[in-house]
Amino acid sequence: MSSNAARATLAALYQARYGADAAVPETTSPLIETLLNHRSVRAYLPDPVSDDALSAIIAAAQSASSSSNLQAWSVVAVRDPARKARMAAWAGGQAHIEQAPLFLIWLADLDRLEQVATKVGDTHAALDYLEMFEVAVIDAALAAQNAVAAAESLGLGTVYIGALRNQPEAVAAELKLPPKVVAMFGLCVGTPDPAQPTSIKPRPPQRVVLHHEEYSRSAQAPGLDAYDAAMRAFYEAQHMKVRGTWSNHSAKRVRDAAALMGRDQLVDALKRMGFELK
After folding, report:
1. The pTM is what?
2. Which of 42, 61, 84, 120 is 20 to 30 A from residue 239's alpha carbon, by CA?
3. Are residues 77 and 165 in the same domain?
4. Are 80 and 144 found together in one domain?
5. Are residues 31 and 155 in the same domain?
6. Residuewise pLDDT in 10s, the chain (278 residues)
7. Chain Cα centroid distance, residue 227
8. Are residues 69 and 171 in the same domain?
């Protein structure tokens, strides 16, 4: 690809994220361009994801940083149609879970550390504290995002499924999870269906999320207004059933406990699953 063509491709990626007047940095790399090209995929071809590809994806996941190298995460690969159907039902009927040939379920896993401590004759009281649960959740998220980048570099599509937290105990029973292990989210993986293409979703201008030296509310306001306009246009172009702006949509999602779709009971469920969360 010529330098002019490469620059035009890069500019198109930035414009998809930030709008037609997006500034395009000179700095780039194949990885950055893969990440900029990310979009959520909810329609898949039936082509299986091979064990070889899965192995490469998990190797990328395991290359993510891990707090104190504790490796407090695990992942369950689900291909069985009946099991995927049950997961889809628990996640609110998301049909793409069933359609995707591979469904990865990412776990915050403190059981392994408990077993390791027991094996060497040590105690493990620190596992009962919120900090260790946060370590496990962050480790799982870092690993999963590496997996997404790896999968997309192979031409596969993905979409995260947070709704597994709607019914964490049902998911745990299905996967035979021991105490101190919980599914934090799922990840559909497969070859995108070209008949149902998806678009890159806009993101807020960088001034909304990037602060210099100190946090600033005032610096965000113009960017949020621009983002509302961009997302209203995106919703309409994609024929999405979202009324109003991003601000309207987001406010609805944080309005009250009912908006959490059962996840307002997550702390109680976690405690029943062995997490003390002191």
Report:
1. 0.95
2. 84
3. yes
4. yes
5. no
6. 678 888 999 999 999 999 988 999 999 999 999 999 999 999 999 999 999 999 999 999 999 999 999 999 999 999 999 999 999 999 999 999 999 999 999 999 999 999 999 999 999 999 999 999 999 999 999 999 999 999 999 999 999 999 999 999 999 999 999 999 999 999 999 999 999 999 999 999 999 999 999 999 999 999 999 999 999 999 998 888 888 899 999 999 999 999 999 999 999 999 999 999 99
7. 21
8. yes
Does one domain contain both 179 and 231? Answer: no
**In this structure, are residues 126 and 205 in contact, taking their beta carbons and an 8 Å threshold?**
no
Q: State which amino acid sits at residue 98.
A: E
**Assigned token pair, 60:** 């990328």
Nearest residue to 187 via CA among 31, 70, 61, 271 = 61
Sheet containing strand 73-78, strands side by side: 73-78, 102-109, 181-190, 157-161
Our measurement of the distance from residue 43's CA atom to the centroid of its chain's CA atoms, rounded to an integer in Å, reads 17
| 3-state class (DSSP) for residue 49 | coil
Judge if 100 and 118 occupy the same domain. yes
Asked if 168 and 238 sit in the same domain, the reply is: no
- Residue 143 and residue 219 in one domain: no
Least Cα distance to 245 among 264, 224, 262, 259 occurs for: 224
DSSP, res 184: E
| Domains of the chain: total | 3
Q: In whole angstroms, how far apart are CA 149 and each of 36, 57, 156, 257?
A: 10, 9, 10, 33
Contact (Cβ atoms closer than 8 angstroms) between residue 188 and residue 119:
no
Q: Is residue 253 part of a domain?
A: no
The tokens describing 191, both together, are 């070859």
